[in-house]
Specification:
The complex is a heterotrimer. Chain A contains 14 helices and no strands. By secondary structure, chain A is an all-alpha fold. The longest helix of chain A has 39 residues. Chain A is globular, with a radius of gyration of 24 Å. Chain B is an alpha/beta fold. Chain B is 25% helix and 19% strand. Chain B contains 10 helices and 12 strands. Chain B has an 8-stranded mixed β-sheet, with helices on both faces. The radius of gyration of chain B is 21 Å and the shape is globular. Chain C has a domain of 243 residues: MetI-like (MetI-like fold, Orthogonal Bundle). Chain C has 11 helices and no strands. In chain C, helix 3 packs across helix 5 and helix 6 runs antiparallel to helix 7. Chain C is globular, with a radius of gyration of 29 Å. Classes of the chains: A mainly alpha, B alpha/beta, C mainly alpha. Chains in contact: A-B, A-C, B-C. At the A-C interface, helix 1, helix 7, helix 8, helix 9 and helix 11 of A face helix 3, helix 4, helix 8, helix 10 and helix 11 of C.
């Protein structure tokens, strides 16, 4: 478990860096940027103004260190301040409303894309010359498409022209959020296109990657040994080849989580999906700095936690990792 | 466990090639005839193994020696059809006559499923590098047990018990069943490979340079264990190596390959005392012996030929101390060594005998014709 | 943009000699296609804007030219405000490529320096640099960029370039570091050091040449990432909206409901351009990967040789060809039956050996 402990320490350090960077961003901005921000909110309530000043480091209540520690304290109490654009809503409330949407949609779709793509990759590697191989160039192209491009085309075709799926939003305007069936079914219905977009664009990437890793792994002696042992084909493919090939693939997944999140943000814009991504963009357009920075923190932490989960899976799958130190 | 009594008893001293018995080797458990393997490349076929005949009798150890690239591993893996694209088998037959088989089987015409059932159960392999040949994510027990499940009808606990017994055979503590390959030492890993190779009581065990990566002491240890197991369980061994000195003590018969062709075959004693082919002589000259008179080491100048562009005649011509123009007409068929005590000692060189001195010509090395000091005797 | 491809980093696949100077024909097909496609776009980026018929920002007030379809005067139609899409596209390609290549060069240079330094210096420096890289790797770039650029609005492309470079080097650094570590322990490097070569010479002449394919792939990846990030940022609306990059075009197209209004010529070309540039880079990357990884090459080669539908679990095929293509012209003894010749060794013809039963 030394490996996991080291990873935990690392994530703690990364989290601290994220927090600190977040703290310093407004303070590091050139002077006129701060003035600019302040001047955009001439009619703020005094409490909000005070909060904004505190966040931007304008008013200097106490030393930098004091600000820093009180900032950290706030964060640990999940107090991210008050939103400027949705005043007087608290940032934490807004986050609480949007995070579940993003988590379920993006989380599920990403995992599905990964599993499906990896599965195809295994098959593609084991049978050269099959139809999957012929599809490779097309897949390469699909994989290079920006998320939102494909999303818009899908909306255009499936939403507008064919009217099969709704054009956006998380649920129909007439439904009331809650644990009622009309709402839930509507939510599912509305999540199909966005999820589909994510899965389609990511499957190609995962498939290509897994295929390459599998091809390298198939060349290893232990796979040949597995065949020489007269084991059933399925065992050789899965337990000898794939189970070893999945390790670099998992690492790739961990690395890609950041990109996945970024892609999801953009996708939410296109679909007007009520998730964290849309919140971020709205915050940007309305210069809602407390909200923007809070979202950055939340996304960073989510990525760190996801990485930790992948590490756990990795240790479970690879016996060598349990004794390794790095 | 099967015992030696069940098998056709073969005295190591008596084993000749059997060629003089006329007709085929109907007592051979594995008979490779006229076997050729080629690699299909964009530039044409590369003949990695060229019309080789080799056979293995029950309980026998046959050594297959040669430099890297001589085709020895290709021959062995090819016979089991384990070579991957672009390798193809272009001629020959590989007949297996195991005791469990109702009738002789030509491996080259088996279906995929028949082959799968035959592999390991009848013919198993000890790979060269155990670190690479053991699955890193499975522990020792799982790797021993899975092959048993594939071939034998054993319950889970029976299989695990047998796995433990196998480890006993190779002197590894039973607690190591739960270890992973990366947790074992090099020698232990190799021994696990040997245990794994014996898990289903095969009749033929192919050992592909099993001790090359190990130090000399461990090597000796493992080899003596192999011989002991062979005597106890009665399997045959095809021992592939580039180190002829190992074969002196281990093998009943030895076959030497060069550039994909056999150049000499005979009993170990005869061949290694009185080698006939210049290549064999050269190989033996390359090894210092611990005892005996001091002599000058020569080795073989040059390097193995490029198989894509072999000149006509004998491929060894460019490096041979005895080479003459006549060698370009040689067709590499094996002929008897008349001066040999072994009636089936054959060589591919029709010009050179064991005692033939090296001509003092510009092409020649000045190695004297070689007589090795008497060996200590076979390990068993 | 979808997932960035990592490349083979298995140290055992590092070859001792660089053989990158082969003729064009020996490159894998993927690399060739990718290179040609990329070259085309680079060419467009370099000289395209010179051929742009209009100033991309020029808004033609004529009402019939608002959201007009492709025509002779406007090859790719016009935008909502009468701007020529084709001119915008040409400029967009140049700007996007410019940004991406600058980021690529800077970030790759940084990653090589950090990666090699970390591997070479070892010890505490290695730990620190690795920690730094890993932290930057794990923190998601886009949200950070959004926040940063949110504060720095109304500026040129430079902040984007700087931030992307700063966030883009860790990935390559990590890969290069692990490869350098592997090479460093190889014999030929030890030999150089033994003969007293100075550190920097060892780095420059022994280590770096062996990592060329890795560095090339890293560069390509970084360019890919930069394009994806900049397009995404522009699309969100945080990047400089006054310059005409492909992302900005997409932003305006989206905000003016181009697709809904049926103005496909505004929306599709920039998106397609991004996708094609991206594809060319990925193909190039796969090609470079194949150069460095012999097993991938074999797999690709197998396809070329027409070994269709081959699976590793297939047993070695038996092809009894009497007329196999011989690579050995004039070699005697190619026939299958052998008879010994009576020679000085006094041989009896070898008795028939093992004719099968």
């Amino acid at each position: 478990m030394r490996f996991l402990v080291r990873r935990l320490v690392f994530y703690a350090v990364a989290a601290w860096v994220a927090l600190t960077v977040n703290f310093f961003i407004p303070r590091a901005m050139p002077g006129n940027a701060v003035q600019d921000v302040m001047s955009r909110f001439p009619e703020l309530q005094p409490s909000a103004e005070k909060a904004l000043e505190a966040m931007l480091g304008v008013a200097h209540p106490g030393s930098m260190w004091h600000q820093y520690t009180s900032y950290l304290g706030d964060i640990f109490r999940f107090d991210f301040g008050v939103s400027l654009s949705e005043y007087p809503a608290r940032v934490s409330t807004l986050l609480g409303e949007t995070i579940p949407w993003t988590l379920t949609l993006v989380g599920t779709a990403t995992v599905i894309g990964f599993l499906v793509g990896t599965g195809f990759g295994i098959v593609a590697a084991w049978r050269s010359g099959g139809w999957l191989d012929r599809a490779l160039p097309a897949l390469t192209f699909v994989q290079a498409l920006p998320y939102f491009f494909l999303a818009l085309i899908l909306i255009e075709v499936l939403g507008l022209k064919l009217k099969v799926f709704p054009l956006g939003q998380g649920y129909a305007g007439t439904d009331i959020p809650g644990w009622n069936w009309p709402f839930i079914s509507s939510a599912i219905y509305h999540s199909v296109l966005p999820a589909f977009t994510i899965v389609i664009t990511s499957v190609a990437g995962w498939m290509l990657q897994m295929r390459n890793v599998m091809i390298t792994t198939i060349g290893e002696d232990y796979v040949l040994a597995g065949q020489a042992k007269g084991l059933r084909n399925r065992r050789v493919v899965l337990t000898y080849a794939a189970r070893n090939a999945i390790l670099p693939q998992l690492s790739g997944f961990a690395n890609a989580i950041g990109f996945v999140v970024s892609g999801a943000i953009v996708m939410e814009i296109v679909f007007s999906y009520p998730g964290v991504g849309l919140l971020l963009v709205n915050a940007v357009t309305s210069n809602d700095y407390p909200l923007m920075q809070a979202i950055f923190l939340v996304i960073s932490f989510a990525v760190l936690i996801a990485n930790l989960l992948v590490d756990l899976v990795y240790v479970f799958v690879d016996p060598r990792a349990r004794t390794r130190t790095a | 466990m099967t015992t030696v009594d069940d098998r056709h008893a073969v005295e190591p001293e008596d084993s000749g090639n059997g060629l003089s018995k006329g007709g085929g080797q109907s007592d051979a458990v594995l008979e490779i005839t006229d076997f050729s393997v080629a690699y299909r490349t964009l530039g044409g076929d590369v003949r990695a193994v060229d019309h080789v005949n080799l056979f293995l009798r029950p309980g026998e150890v046959v050594g297959l020696a040669g430099e890297s690239g001589s085709g020895k591993s290709t021959l062995a893996y090819g016979a089991c059809r384990l070579l991957r694209a672009p390798a193809v088998i272009t001629s020959g037959s590989v007949i297996y006559r195991g005791r469990r088989m109702a009738r002789p089987v030509d491996i080259l015409s088996e279906t995929k499923e028949e082959l799968r059932a035959l592999r390991w159960r009848e013919i198993s392999i000890v790979f060269q590098s155990a670190m690479n040949a053991l699955n890193p994510v499975l522990n020792v027990r799982d790797q021993l047990v899975d092959v048993m499940h594939a071939h034998l009808q054993l319950s889970r606990s029976e299989a695990v018990d047998k796995a433990a017994e196998l480890l006993d055979f190779v002197s590894i503590p039973r607690s190591r069943l739960k270890s992973y390959p990366h947790e074992l030492s090099g020698g232990m890993r190799q021994r696990v490979m040997i245990a794994m190779a014996l898990a289903t009581d095969p009749e033929v065990v192919i050992m592909d340079e099993p001790t090359t990566a190990l130090d000399v002491v461990v090597q000796r240890d493992i080899l003596s264990q192999v011989v002991e197991l062979k005597d106890r369980l009665g399997f045959s061994v095809l021992f592939i190596t580039h180190d002829l000195s190992l074969l002196l003590e281990l093998a009943n018969r030895v076959a030497v390959m060069y550039a994909g062709k056999l150049v000499e075959v005979g009993t170990a004693r005869e061949m290694l005392h009185e080698p006939a082919h210049p290549y064999t002589k050269g190989l033996l000259n390359s090894f210092p012996s611990v005892r005996g008179p001091r002599r000058e080491l020569t080795g073989i100048p040059g390097s193995p030929p490029d198989l894509r562009s072999l000149p006509p005649g004998c491929p060894f011509l460019g490096r041979c101390g005895y080479g003459t123009d006549a060698c370009r007409e040689v067709d590499m068929s094996l002929v008897r060594v008349t001066t040999s005590a072994d009636p089936d000692h054959v060589t591919a060189c029709p010009f050179v005998l064991p005692g033939t001195p090296v001509p003092t010509s510009p092409t020649g090395a000045t190695a004297p014709a070689q007589v090795l000091p008497a060996p200590e005797g076979p390990l068993s | 943009m979808a997932i960035v491809m990592p490349i083979s980093t298995d140290p055992s696949l590092v070859r001792e000699k660089t053989q990158s100077r082969g003729p064009w024909g020996r490159l894998p097909t993927k690399a060739k296609v990718g290179a040609v496609l990329l070259a085309f776009f680079i060419l467009v980026g370099l000289i395209g804007p010179l051929f742009a018929p209009y100033d991309p920002s020029y808004q033609n007030p004529a009402p019939n030219l608002s959201l007009a379809g492709p025509s002779f005067a406007h090859l790719l139609g016009t935008t909502q405000s009468g701007q020529d899409v084709f001119s915008q596209l040409l400029n967009g390609i140049r700007l996007t490529l410019e940004l991406a290549f600058v980021v690529g060069v800077v970030a790759t240079a940084l990653s090589v320096i950090v990666g090699v330094a970390a591997a070479f210096l070892g010890g505490i420096w290695d730990e620190l640099l690795s920690l730094l890289s890993n932290v930057f790797l794990v923190l998601p770039a886009l949200p950070l960029l959004v926040v940063l650029l949110g504060y720095l609005k109304e500026t040129t492309q430079w902040p984007t370039i700087v931030v992307l470079s700063v966030l883009g080097w860790p990935w390559g650094a990590r890969v290069i570091r692990s490869q350098t570590l592997a090479i460093r322990n190889r014999d030929f490097v030890a030999a150089s050091r033994e003969t007293g070569e100075k550190g920097w010479r060892v780095i420059l002449f022994d280590i770096v040449p062996n990592e060329v394919s890795l560095i090339a792939a890293s560069f390509v990846n970084t360019v890919l990432y930069a394009i994806g990030a900049s397009v995404a940022l522009a699309f969100i609306g945080v990047a400089d909206l006054n310059s005409w990059s492909l992302g900005t075009m997409l932003y305006w197209a989206q905000s003016q409901q181009a697709l809904t209004l049926g103005a496909w010529w505004w929306f599709i070309p920039p998106g397609l351009a991004v996708a094609l540039i991206g594809t060319s880079l990925v193909l190039l990357n796969f090609g470079i990967d194949e150069i460095g990884n012999p097993r991938l090459r074999d797999a690709a080669g197998a396809k070329r040789r027409g070994l269709s539908k081959w699976s590793p679990s297939d047993p070695t095929p038996v092809v009894r060809s009497g007329g196999a293509r011989a690579a050995v012209p004039g070699h005697l003894g190619a026939s299958s039956s052998r008879r010994g010749n009576g020679g000085p060794v006094g041989a009896r013809p070898k008795a028939g050996s093992g004719t099968g039963r």
